Amino acid sequence: MLWNIAFRTLLHDRGKLLAGLIGVIFSVILVNIQGGLFLGLIRKASLLVDRSDADIWVGHRGMHNVDFPHNIPHRWIDRVRSVPGVVEVEPLRIAFSEMSLPDGNYEGVMVVGVSKGTTLGRSFSIEQGADDALEYRDSVIVDSCDDDKLISPQLGEIREIGSKRARVTGKSYGILSFLVTPYVFTYYDRSLEFTGADPSLDSYFLVRAAAGADHDSICREIESRLPDVTAMTATTFANTSTNFWIRRTGIGLSFGAATLLGLLVGLVMVGQTLYAMVLDRITEFATLKAIGSSEREIILLLAAQASVVASLGIGIGVVSTFLIRHLLSSPRASIEIPLSLYLASAILVFVICLLASALPYLRVRRVDPHSVLQG
Amino acid sequence: MIHSPLVAATGNAELLPSATLCLSAQSTAPRLLAAVGIRKSYRIGGESRAVLDGVDFHACEGETVFLSGPSGSGKSTLLSILGCLLECDSGEITIGDRRVDRMNVNERTLLRRHSIGFVFQRFQLIRGLSAEDNVAVPLTLQGTSLAAARQAAGELLTRVGLGAHRNQLPTLMSPGQCQRVALARAVITAPMIVLADEPTAALDGKSGIEVMELLKELVRETRSATIVVTHDPRIMHYADRVCEIENGRFK
Fold first, then answer.
1. Interface of B with A (CB under 8 A)
2. Nearest CA to CA, how far is B124 from chain A (Å)?
3. Which of A137, A193, B50, B74 is deepest in the core (most CB within 10 A)?
4. Which residues of B touch A292 (CB under 8 A)?
């Protein structure tokens, strides 16, 4: 019966129910979109690692972010190859340079040099151009999401990178840096020309381990043989790279604050709505008390109403979030909402709504059942 | 033993005391409610003002007692105390065979739930619930399933002439109809005591008479002791006994 009273009185007061629902829906959308934007943005910090096809990344001791490598001697690569469990090792070069633009200006780019004949380090997939786009002379691959910055380079267009001739032979889609600097992919040897780098130094070694090999053990073995390097599994290095930006920029705090604000708005709106409904029906609560409803039953009634508002609001909010994500998510402003975020936000908002029901209860608790006999 | 569909539905007849008899009503009906030496005072403007000053009262099974008196005489306060809605400063109250004045808040809540039915001047129906659900509330509080409570409520509403309005919201019903719903709610559990606070004050003359007729008919079945606070001279003849209160004492 409590559910019946809770549900029917809520439906009876549709205006206030709508206000409460809007609060919950707003909270759910805000929490999910903020969280999804955060995850989408921060994931860019490890995109090269996530899509590298490597099991282990080896870089200079203390490496903390894939975009900011400190070079290591190329000659160390053979010592890594000799570690038991290692199947393949390839060097990777990541270095800043500048690309010329049609209007005479230059745009800073991050040149990523990958080895020929391997999938290690090939974080891009070619969406426009031939599959062997990098086999052409002076060839580079740019991302079509960076068209604005690079002023729409067309396939076959000639540009200069680091004052060297470069030809755009392929375009990828959605490989964006956490920094504003576009990635330009090319072969390892060609990247030396574009960046003027020392050919005896590499940014990273990418390792493919044997099937079933313990990656952590291989990392420890590499570090024991080369004390000046750090070896991490791809997962660890991806987390290290994202944590670098979270800690150094405070980005988590700003997104977290916005999310918290959303929850707070939801809390206030649901609490205010339930409170207004209770104020409007205060004599009904007094009557319920008079005819024998216990405090516990009154609490359950209010909690049931909060649960109804929360459940309806969460349901509508999740569907709305799904649609918003579908409509607005792009590689540049990626909204990545895993199922765990949907679940976490739903639980969080539900708990917030239950807490919000405490506000009207404080009012109902003070209602004297005797008051119904006082007119 | 009481043979009533309402009593049969709830089994409240077991709560009736057998030892104390209602001598003042010159019958052998058991005394369901007894109050002795009830005192209650309020602090108004920093001064203590006695509202009830040593009131003795009782009501027997099937008896209808009217409490009347001028405004501020203490009759509503007495009704609240008898209905376990308000605590007295001193005195003894017994409902059935249980001492109420020694009970804590939870015990009094449960006593109201199981043994007392209320009829309020302003009906106090829950606006969001249909007439049937409003009447079913006390039964469900006692643990009856919603379906069974609705069925019992529907039958009772039919008896009070509102069978066609069972699914109607109180906001769409006339005051007379609302008070009949409230009456049905008060007696659905066949309570030991029915307390009515000016039940005809918000009604026109015809509706008031209808409501009193209905109240008498329903409590005749449940054998409840009925205590009615009223100013309404049109309904005085429905009382078995009228107790006039003035300045916190019975005349």
1. 76, 79-80, 83, 85-86, 106, 109-110, 112-114, 116-118, 120-122, 124, 126-129, 133, 136-138, 140-141, 146, 149, 169, 185, 197
2. 6
3. B74
4. 109-110, 112-114, 116, 138, 141
ipTM: 0.85
Q: Do B76 and A373 touch (CB under 8 A)?
A: yes
Q: Is A283 on the interface with B (CB under 8 A)?
A: yes
Chain A residues with CB inside 8 Å of B129's CB? 4-5, 8-9
Dihedral sign from CA coordinates of B112, B114, B115, B119: positive
* Residue B130 identity (one-letter amino acid): S
A-chain residues near B79 (CB < 8 A): 373
What is the Cα–Cα distance from B91 to B85, expressed in whole angstroms? 15
Instruction: For B54-84, write each residue's pLDDT tens digit.
Output: 899 999 999 999 999 888 888 889 999 999 9
pLDDT, tens digit (0-9, with 9 covering 90-100), for B80-121: 999 999 999 999 999 988 999 889 999 999 999 999 999 988
Contact A370 B85 (CB under 8 A): yes
Subunit contact A8:B133, Cβ cutoff 8 A? yes
Both tokens assigned to B137:
């509330």
Please answer yes or no on whether A291 and B141 come within 8 Å at the CB atom.
Answer: yes
